[in-house]
Task: structure prediction
Amino acid sequence: MIVSKSNTTAVIAEMTELIAIHLSLAGFDDEKAELAAGNIVDELRRQFGGINLYFPKGVHQDYSARRAEIYESYK
Result:
């Protein structure tokens, strides 16, 4: 698979936006959230740039959380 420059730029932009959204939801003002998100993604790029990273879906974690919710509702 050939990865184009535009694809990698889009991934970086999407990661930055996603992190900024979550920082805003956590209480950061939008400007600081965007700045921090950019800094985080830049650091990730420097530390891990050029290698393949695998992010597990965490299905077992999701199932455990759901089971705990169900258990709590019947306690």
